[in-house]
Amino acid sequence: QVQVVESGGGLVEPGGSLRLTCAASGLGSSDYWASWYRQAPGSDREFVSTLTQTATGDRANYVTSVRGRFAMSRDKAKKIIYLQMNNLKPEDTAVYFCNVRKGGGSYWGQGTQVSVSS
């Protein structure tokens, strides 16, 4: 059974940083894909970032609003995915979800709350 667990959220002032962690278990091999999404109150869930595996390693892609501030990475073998968030803004406030995909399956965690406020 695949399980995805996010952690690392919290309350931070504007301009601050947080690092989210997503731990995936039950995947078997290290051949999987991962993305981060977020959902603000009253809004739909939106894409934040994803990792694409290339011949030279992982390549991350981001939604325009976080590009240059967020960095997604992973420890592929340990099946841990990270989202480093810098220069956080109030509009980054949301529940952040990790999505892991393997073999046609798509697995979500329960989310971790990120609140940016002074």
Describe the structure.
The structure is a single chain. This protein has no helices and eleven strands. It is globular, with a radius of gyration of 14 Å. The protein is an all-beta fold. The strands form two sheets. Strands 2, 4, 5, 6, 9, 10 and 11 form a seven-stranded mixed β-sheet that branches. Strands 1-3-8-7 form a four-stranded antiparallel β-sheet, with no helix packed on it. It is 0% helix and 58% strand.
Number of helices: 0
Average predicted confidence as pLDDT: 95
Major sheet summary line: 7 strands, mixed
Percent helix, as a range, is under 10%
Q: What is the rounded Rg?
A: 14 Å
Cα end-to-end separation: 41 Å
Q: DSSP strand (E) fraction?
A: over 45%
| Uncertain regions spanning at least 5 consecutive residues | none
The arrangement of helices and strands along the chain is EEEEEEEEEEE
Kindly name the structural category. mainly beta
Number of strands: 11
Morphology: globular
